[in-house]
What does this fold into?
Amino acid sequence: MEKIYVRGGAPLRGTIRVSGSKNASLAIMAACLLVEGRTILRNVPDIRDIHNMAEVLRELGATVRFSTDGVVSIDAAGFQETNAPEELVSKMRASFYVMGPMLARLGEGHVAQPGGCNIGARPVDFHIRGLQALGAQVKAEGGVVDAYAPRLRGANIYLDFPSAGATTHLITAACLAEGITTIENAATEPEVADLVNFLRALGARIEGAGTSTVIVQGVDKLQTNREYTIIPDRMEAGTFACAAAITRGDVVLENVTAAHMQPVLVKLQDMGVSVTAIGADVDAPGLLRIAASGRCNAVDILAMPHPGFPTDMQQPMVALLALSDGASMVTDRVFENRFRYVSELQRMGADIRVEGRTAFVHGVDRLKGASICATDLRAGAALIVAALAAEGESTVSGVEHVDRGYGALVEKLQMAGADITRVDSDHPSRLLAVG
Ligand code: EPU
It folds into this structure.
């Protein structure tokens, strides 16, 4: 079993390169199934979820090739399998996104219903209702969703909640549908806008990217042999920003779109952290300097759909607040069970009380290293951020969760001066290469 050892206290310094967005890449990889040929993606992160999605696409008949520096070539000319492998789908909810292209290109799809997970129930009812509105016959029984649609037809869809996943999935499904689809109360996350920009680059006709009303005019085909560069991962960047702030470090993050991070950057500034976007264009990937010289101030946080504070960042932020000066209230309006990591922070000496969807944090002077376990991806990020500033040594288990979304995390933090190592706990003397 692999673990991450951290000896806290070293301020992070230097430059850290941020990878491409996990969630944009997952949505865009699934959408490549719409193309009857090859698509080249750039800035794809080298993480477990991406390799898992690649495996799903291969099982469906696509060819997926990884080359150096985040370039992935996907050729979906051979896409003809309508059964997604349950074992792979159950590992990752985003694999449900392949249902839309199955219906659009093959007229039917059979995909395991993703279960609940460590952060909440996470049903797919919005996806299913949207596909039904587009004309699919859908049956969800025995843990499998079976859907049939000789031809998807444009429709008006209203989402009860601006779900990122349902919005991306339904935009993808509607691209090749006959007529116009309007999605109201759509998610406005940068990753949704990135999917739309990708599809438009391939000839799709879509208006309203990044707004709550998205209009898709179906086309017959998408173009082949197009190249597209994925946006930077704002969650990875935000995690490094918290790590820099909690260690009172001074770090330059490379490949960051500052405009996508505004809700997080504004909070960091309120906490007394120095945030400087270097270069003229905050809407394009560039450099971001994060520096902190003392203890941060407490702030309140309300996690909600974009442009609100992102739910994926509340965990590393709570780690930072645990060592800040004063009391904070952190509420998550997106997922009902996203504070499970708090018990691990408490083991490190954090003073946090959770009531329902709210965590009440009283900043303490110091955290102490402990043996702690990540229960999900962002929980792992929070624990590593806390461990970087804790006194003494921490051992983080549940590393497989961290690997889903952070590529070469240990190596990147080492380069910035952190005392952090990945080990095989069955053979503690053997250091592991990180991948
Ligand atoms: N929801 C429903 N029914 C649905 C879909 C969603 O009730 O059919 C509910 C969910 O249970 C949740 C809320 O709507 O309470 C929002 O869920 P959403 O669909 O927006 O989340 P998601 O698409 O499943 C994506 C990201 C998550 C991120 C959320 C919110 C991917 C692969 N995942 O999930 O990322 O937290 O949006 O921004 O894009 C992560 O990266 O760690 C992560 C969990």
Summary: The mean pLDDT is 95. The first helix runs from residue 22 to 31. Residues 22-23, 26, 93-94, 120-127, 161, 163-166, 187, 189, 311-312, 334-335, 377-378, 405 surround EPU (CB under 6 Å). The domain at 22-229 is CATH 3.65.10.10 (UDP-n-acetylglucosamine1-carboxyvinyl-transferase; Chain).
